[in-house]
Amino acid sequence: MRQRRPLLALLAAAALIPLAGLVATSAQAASPVTLRDPIKREIAQEIITSAENSSLNWYDQYSYIEPYPDGRGLTGGIVGFTSGTHDMLVLVQNYTKKHPANRLAKWIDELEQVDGTDETAPLGEAYMADWRAEGAAPAFQQAQRDEVTVQYFDPAVDLAIADGLGALGQFAYYDAAVVHGFSGLQDVRSEAKKSATTPASGGSQTTYLNAFLDARVIEMQKEEAHEDVSRIENAQRVWLDAGNLDLDTPLNWSVYGDPYSIPTAPTPHWPVSGTTPTPTPTTTPGTATLISKNKPVTASTVEGTGFEAAKAVDGNATTRWASVEGVDPQWVRIDLGAGSTVNKVVLKWEAAYASKYRIETSNDGTTWTTLATEAAGNGGTDEFTNLTGTGRYLRIYGTARGTAYGYSLYEAEVYTVTGGGTTPTSTPTPTPTAPTGPTWPGSSQITVADGADTFGTDLSGLSFSADGSALWAVNNGSGTLHRLVRSGSNWAEASGWSGGRTLRYTNGSGAPDAEGVVAVGSDLFVASERNGSSKSTSRPSILQYRPGTSSGSLTALKEWNLTSDLPSVGANDGLESIAWIPDADLVASGFVDQRTGSAYSPASYANHGDGLFFVGLEADGKVYAYALNLSGGFTRVASFASGFDTVMELEYQPSTRTLWSVCDDSCDGAVNALKVTSGAFAVAAEYDRPSAMPNINNEGFALAPACVGGARYAIWADDSDTSDHALRAGSMSCS
Q: Which long-range contacts (CB under 8 A, 24 or more apart) does 464-473 make?
């Protein structure tokens, strides 16, 4: 987690640069407004500067810079950019792209050298003198404001608004982002949500903010430089205890023993434009959500151990992917998930950078569309905004190296942008364009079926127990199995199953990337596409578990590795779903064994149990039927199209002898009804998702065994945990 330091004094030699052309003052609103209101933003900046620079005049700090003994090198500017925590480097790089002739441009190599360290010698007094001089330049002042907005203010305020927080809560998030970085803010938020519920999810704003500030204090005190937490306790907590959720004046507080006061609405100094800003409601750019972190990634080459492709998306600014040296072209490819929207890409190059490269998207990993190009790259951080790309895969394709070495990325960050518009409020589950095909065969209504933030991301396959009392769920990210039971209208962990069971291979090791699950008698069969401990290697398998025989982790009783029989696919393009169909139903339907061309005969497959297993392959959208010998070995009986380019879930409905194939948001949440026709499963009908279901990344689907009042309970699992909910429920007609 990135950290910042409290600044206890100003650098005596720093020039103070009063600004001309202040914006006009507007009356402080009586009703709650967002932190984007000019007055509220001014208040926020003054409070932060009281902690960062022992002053309220944040607009006098553009030229401020000093070495500070907190392990972060030099500290400078209006929020304390530091040479050791990357944001000072990014600021100078972005400023130089727009204004190449500035005094700081010549220091980029040295800034890269000290980035991530506490060293200051390569910069020294000469660099600080250039910073102070450049601080008088309006363009550099604008660059500092832009960097604060992009890195800290906008993402923090957007997140706070989505959580249903008022101006005080938005400020608490913003201050946390300045001190800990945005990712650090997210970590503090996650800790707070373990003990309190956000207002957007029905919780009390006061209770949640107290929990957030408690978590913030704990995080601050992990470092000696932050033992004084008065910027929280003597400021934010004071106003929270007083019920001032709108951050209205008068405001009185103290930081590090110094008293401060904002008695009335201050004159806004942001932006410095000479024009009167538009009062709230304001237009916002929407919430930028990082969608690439820890996603599956492959590369054309890897320099060696420690420089694997996954290092480019691990969120760690000190690790990196590196290609072999001296070879063009090279590429790194990120699997964002089907149907992803890309609006922003940030590339953080190591010294071995690309001077020419393309950013491309693809739905299938074969046909690529260029999203952006760079013909004169100079390393550092490249940011591409206002993009309009869609696709499952994003590739950075380098065609010319900037050095004699290879290509090397500390981080490739891919963002999608949601929301935006006029005065944002609590962000609801997104609802894209309504489906237009045949309507869902059941009720159009959808309800949330889990508590807020109960399961998080990566919940995938679902399967009911035979009596419908339990719902089995697997998580593909953590490789865990969950046993869920009804808790009112929601599903929650069964007693003794908190956190689920970690799945293991037959030797007790590994972490199967569990994508699908089906209950067959007292056993569970899980479809997995790879070992989570070796994510770059494909391992499409069916694993058998008996959950009633163990606690803690679960070791597979049997593994059927289907690699030799299935098409060669990428490590994250393998098995996504699994269903089981009784032999009796297959025979009654006239199912034909494609091996023999004759009617399926269960007796032909020794020790396979009472039915066949059907698995869906993500890469080609096909379904493969297998007879599994319970003593070892397998035989493919048939294969057929699911009706989609990619299949995320399979669910068999015995009463109608229908195999449902389910697609995610890449197909607008449609489902296909597959029935045996002329001996083979074929698409009998395609249906839209329920009209009240948003087009989200549903990768799990299950139908309850019982039919009540002509309808069957249906439930979906959203891999993306949209709006903090992973489960949504509806119904399907029994006929």
A: 464/519, 464/702, 464/703, 464/704, 464/705, 465/519, 466/519, 466/521, 466/705, 467/705, 468/704, 468/705, 468/706, 468/713, 470/494, 471/702, 471/715, 472/517, 472/519, 472/524, 473/517, 473/700, 473/717
Distance CA 688, CA 667 (A): 9
CA distance 479 to 515: 9
Residues found in the chain: 735
* Listed residue (595, 464, 448, 557) closest to 518, CA to CA: 464
pTM (2 d.p.): 0.47
Active-site positions read 52, 70
Question: Partners of 384 in the beta sheet?
Answer: 345
Q: What are the start-end ranges of the H helices in 70-166?
A: 87-98, 108-114, 124-134, 138-148, 154-162
d(CA 154, CA 36): 9
Pairing of strands 554-555, 501-504: parallel
Query: Is residue 492 within 8 Å of residue 484, measured between CB atoms?
Result: yes
> Is 536:512 a contact under the CB 8 Å cutoff?
no
Give the pLDDT mean for 611-615.
98
pLDDT of residue 271: 63
Best CA proximity match to 31, nearest among 40, 41, 44:
40
d(CA 201, CA 337): 26
Query: For residues 238 and 168, what is the distance between their CA atoms, to the nearest angstrom?
Result: 11
User: What does the pLDDT look like over 349-402, one tens digit per residue?
Assistant: 998 999 889 999 988 887 778 888 887 788 888 888 888 888 999 999 998 898
Take residue 597 and report the two structure tokens written for it. Answer: 């061309």
What number of H helices and E strands is found in the chain?
A: 11, 43
Amino acid at site 661: S
pLDDT band at 556, cuts 50/70/90?
very high
CA distance linking residue 628 with residue 612, whole number of Å: 7
What one-character DSSP code corresponds to residue 311? Answer: G
The DSSP string of 313-377 is GSS-TT--EEPPTT-S-EEEEEE--TT-EE-EEEEEE-SS-EEEEEEEEESSSSS-EEEEEESS-
Nearest-5° angle of CA 631, CA 636, CA 642?
A: 130
CB 689 within 8 A of CB 666: no
Residues 6+ apart with CB under 8 A from 390: 339, 340, 341, 342, 361, 363
Helix (H, G, I), strand (E, B) or coil at 31: coil
Distance separating alpha carbons of residues 623 and 642, to the nearest angstrom: 6
Q: How far apart are CA 657 and CA 637, in angstroms?
A: 18
pLDDT over 90, % of the chain: 52
State the pLDDT confidence band at 62, using cuts at 50, 70 and 90: very high
- Residue 670 phi, psi dihedral angles, 5° rounding: -75, 160
Other CB atoms within 10 A of residue 19 CB: 14
Strand partners, 713: 731
371 contacts 343 by C-beta, under 8 angstroms: no
Burial of 134 (0-12, 13-18, 19+ CB in 10 A): buried
What number of other Cβ atoms are within 10 A of residue 252's Cβ?
A: 14
In order of 342, 353, 593, 719, 720, the CA distances from 457 in angstroms are 19, 33, 39, 5, 5
Taking only the tens place, the pLDDT of each residue in 305-364 is 999 999 999 998 889 999 999 888 899 999 998 888 998 999 999 989 998 899 999 888
**CA 414, CA 231: separation in Å to the nearest integer?**
33
Q: What is the mean pLDDT of residues 655-665?
A: 93
pLDDT at position 551, please?
66
| Cβ-contact 693, 442 below 8 angstroms | no
Structure tokens at 14: 């720093």
